[in-house]
Amino acid sequence: MIEAMGQWGETFSRDGTDATRTFQRISELPDWFPAGLVADLIKQMFPAVSAADEFGSERYSDVVQRLASQILRIAEGNSNEW
Fold this sequence. Notes:
two-stranded antiparallel sheet, alpha+beta, 3 helices
């Protein structure tokens, strides 16, 4: 479920010489999403994962853990918008 909540994006270099980078992030959660419940489950399943924005969450190599850290950040009431 965590991966399904991620939005896809891509970045391009300013001059077009660098390769395109695709990424998955969670910038916001829909109103119906049980953020508190999911945050509790994340803490149980991934105790080493902590809340982080998109850039801070890159310390996790696993995409599920990276997105889970972004969910934790949003569940704490922080914005993950650019």
